[in-house]
Amino acid sequence: MAEWDIQKLEEKYRDTWPEMFEADPDEREKFYLNVAFPYPSGAMHVGHGRTYIVPDVIARFWRMQDKNVLFPMAFHVTGTPVIGISRRIAKGDPETVRLYRDLYRVPEDVLARFDDPMTIVEYFARDYERIMQRCGLSIDWRRRFITVNPQYSKYIEWQYAHLKEGEHVVKGVHPVKYCPSCDNPVGDHDLMEGEKAEIMKFTLILFEWQGAKIPCATLRPETIYGVTNLWANPEVTYLRANVDGEKWILSREAAYKLEMQDHTVEVTGEVSGAEIVGSKASHPLCGEVPVLPAAFVDPDVGSGLVMSVPAHAPFDYIALRDLQEQGKFTEVEPVAIIKSEGYGEIPAKDAIERAGITHQLDPRMDEVTREVYGAELLHGTLLANCGDQASKPVKQARDDVAALMLEDYGSKVMFEFDTQNVVCRCGGRVYVKILHDQWFLQYSDPIWKAQVHEQINEMEIVPQEVRAEFDRTVDWLKDWACTRRVGLGTKLPWDQNWIIEPLSDSTLYMAFYTIAHHIKKIDPEKLTPEVFDYIIYGTGNPTTVPRETLDAIRAEFLYWYPYNYRFSAKDLISNHLTFQLFHHRAVMEEDKQPQGMVIFGMGLLNGAKMSSSKGNVVLLDDALNEFGPDTVRMFLVGSAEPWQDFDWRNELVIGAKKQIERFWNTVSEGIAVEENDGREIDGWLISRLQHRIEHTTTALQNFQTRQALQEAFFGIEADLKWYRRRLPTIAPGSAAIKELCSVWVRLLAPVVPYTSEELWHQLGHEGSVAFAPWPVADAAKIDEKTELAEEFLARTVEDIESIVRIIQMEPRAVNLYVAPAWKRQVFSIIAGAADPKKAIKLVMADEDLRSRGKEAADAAKQVTKFIHRLPPELVENVTAHDLDEMAVLTAAQEFLEREVKVPVRILEAEGSGEVKADTALPFKPAIVIE
RNA sequence: GCGAGGGUAGGUAAGCCAGGCCAAAACCGGCGGACUUAAGAUCCGUUCUCGCAGGAGUCCGUGGGUUCGAAUCCCACCCCUCGCACCA
């Protein structure tokens, strides 16, 4: 019997496998599964490993069920990250170089060529492919592509033509975070500071002022009715400017921001804050109000000029009060316009006084402000002095007044961050910019959303719980800017200045897999939209490619599509996974919609989040070298169900390795030993095996890889343990063991393909275990009575042992007293009773039993208690099979004596004269130790 | 802050939806023993507390509640993970 040497097994089989899993349409039923493809900008770690190994286990499982399984792979290389990496490497950025040279161990000569982004992705794509093959992934590599292949670009162009035709791609304006020094929009991950900053929409309310307008930015336009004054900072020099052709007064900062936000701003002069202070400004909805001085007014917030609503804004209230305490502007009175529960006439005043705030600089001012704003938004109603808005709830009035302002009073919208200091990685300040000419995928379209909801409802989603998250995401999605100026990718077909954004070019590639190996062979120039129309829809009359070629390609598409399952980690739910549903709905026909999704948990390393940038990773290649592919696979699919987070810990992985070794040794022994005569216990083993097959199959059908392993590995091992305990002196070489080995190797083949492949051959089978028939449970081999008898024995031995353990005497002999038949009668009656409370009455209704009087009543009580503690199926079996306990125990006498190491006597309880024998119950003999 | 999911014995984790089979599966780890020159592997026992007869007590994030009965149902609180976008 050879030692288990996984390295050798890997070398023996790895390179012969890739062609084996090339899948072509045939008469069998298909099973098509795919995974979110990787962006190969760095080395694979064990977290990536699980992403591909779990689907592979599922693929191998279904393949053995005689499904035609397609499992393809490609590489996503579009976008900007590798461009940044290549630049940083070219510059010699030490951190990046360290990551690639030391952690990912890229050879120096290769690293030297990493100044070209394509070199990076091509290098790592090859590396991924190599490592995936080491892992034994049953991928059809003929279909491999990368997302900048010209043929793929043609497919994307076709897709976008249809999206545009369906009016799902529209040109729009959109506020984005923008870094003027990079001259590019920036994502949150590009920010050094202010990552959580949100873009807020202010209304600029225009006040008449000496032939010009003073814009005041507000989030609460409805408070215009309560404006008593404006605030200007006397220390600030404001600008006079023509904004969109109108004369405005505003801060320098505000002028710059508005320019970024698509307004024309032409500076014509300056005016000091001091000059403005003391003058009057007016708005039709609040009349003429004075401009008051305020040092707290920040020119870098809003327009740099503020409207004041002292009744409802604590800052305004306290600033006004402070001025008035100095005897200034005493004629200004707060104007209350909102009634809100829990507050008096002037909520700002109440809140400040309740909090005991006496000074504007009190740090609790922000908190009090939030409190008042929140309370008024939730419960406030506008008062009678608010014109048309009177008695409206604040919530509604806010929107109505904002709309009114924009329509009738010349207001403009201004965007601002909710936090100051938003800084780009380049160190430059980030502003809100309105992008025009930008193309958007209109995910906000309610009709489109409704279609996706419908699809989510029809799909199988594993685990069920994430369905809610998908629905939430669909509701929450707004329009998505789908074009960029920089990065790798496909040009927008109708506007060549734009590149299709990388998330937006990878929503329908699952369909491309079905035809990729054919399409690759066609000159991209010939791949007109008509060609794809013909392949996907079967319409039109393309002439650039021979018709029989197209018919074959279309046939293949129709065979595989739609996909059965897509596998991905849960962090992609809120974008990619939901996007692809939108795109399928828009472009693919009704019967080509995604059928199912399986969502994975995340990976941890020793309890901490895996992160390449922090160096907290185990590279998959290293893990394969150290433990071998089967161990890595077994650990990754066995330590947690796919949707749970898993934690890679080396000491646990070593455990998995030992387990496979045990499996190897047991099966090798089984093969080596000469067949000998079967024993009765063989029937039990084979009967148990049927349950294991059934449970493993169900688990894998439900993607429960961990559960499957519990059954297929530990379950079978536990059965074997009992089997050997019952037959310690006989070598395990029976026909039953051979049968078990053959089944066992196949049950574990999806998880440990290398080990199983070798054992399968050693068992004398031709062909790969990957295509061997999956075991099917045979009901005829299930022998419930034997299983029950063994359970009875096991429980009895356990009971004896637990008693021996407690008593502190050395046992000399064990007497077992089997319960009399009439107690079995009691057991049946009680077990069958619908209402347990009436069970005792039922027992006493039996004449024979009643004649036993108190004895019967006591037994009934004991039996009731006992039944209560047993699993219901077991109770059912006990009743159904009416086990001859005497015979079972007698037959196992030798076994019992070996177990307890003293003579065992098996006796009838009835008439034994032993007091303790009275406690004998069916399925629970009385035990007396001498 | 908002949205989704989750907290079970030393660790991983099943059970929870359908309350009583639950002192709570399974695996790992720990401890003791057998085998061995030894280590490893393997096997046996043990791993909340108490108990010289198969039993009792306490326990499933915290605090309440419902129920004859709660890890499981309800309420509140605390803590953790993921997502919150123009980016893979």
Topology summary:
Blueprint: H1 6-13, E1 30-35, H2 46-64, E2 68-70, H3 81-91, H4 94-103, H5 108-111, H6 117-134, H7 150-165, E3 169-179, E4 184-185, E5 191-193, E6 199-209, E7 212-218, E8 229-232, E9 237-243, E10 246-250, H8 252-260, E11 265-272, H9 273-276, E12 280-283, E13 287-293, E14 306-308, H10 314-325, E15 338-339, H11 347-355, H12 365-379, E16 381-382, H13 394-408, E17 412-417, E18 423-424, E19 431-441, H14 446-458, E20 460-462, H15 467-476, E21 480-481, E22 483-484, E23 499-500, H16 509-513, H17 516-519, H18 529-537, H19 547-560, E24 565-569, H20 573-587, E25 596-600, E26 603-605, E27 608-609, H21 620-627, H22 629-638, E28 646-648, H23 650-672, H24 680-701, H25 705-726, H26 735-748, H27 753-762, H28 784-806, E29 814-818, H29 821-832, H30 839-845, H31 847-850, H32 854-869, H33 872-881, H34 885-891, H35 893-900, E30 904-908, E31 926-929
Helix pairs in contact: 1-27, 2-22, 3-6, 7-18, 10-11, 11-12, 14-15, 14-20, 15-20, 18-19, 21-22, 22-23, 23-26, 23-27, 24-25, 24-26, 24-28, 26-27, 29-30, 29-32, 30-32
This protein binds one RNA strand of 88 nucleotides through β3, β19, α15, β21 and β22.
Uncertain residue segments: none
Strand line-up in the sheet with most strands: 2-1-24-25-20
Indicate the overall shape.
globular
- Beta-strand percentage? 15-25%
- Alpha-carbon distance between the two ends: 46 Å
Largest sheet: 5 strands, parallel
Task: State the helicity in percent bands.
Answer: 40-55%
Helix/strand class: alpha/beta
The pLDDT mean sits at: 89
Rounded Rg: 39 Å
Number of helices: 35
Q: Find the count of extended strands (DSSP E, 2+ residues).
A: 31
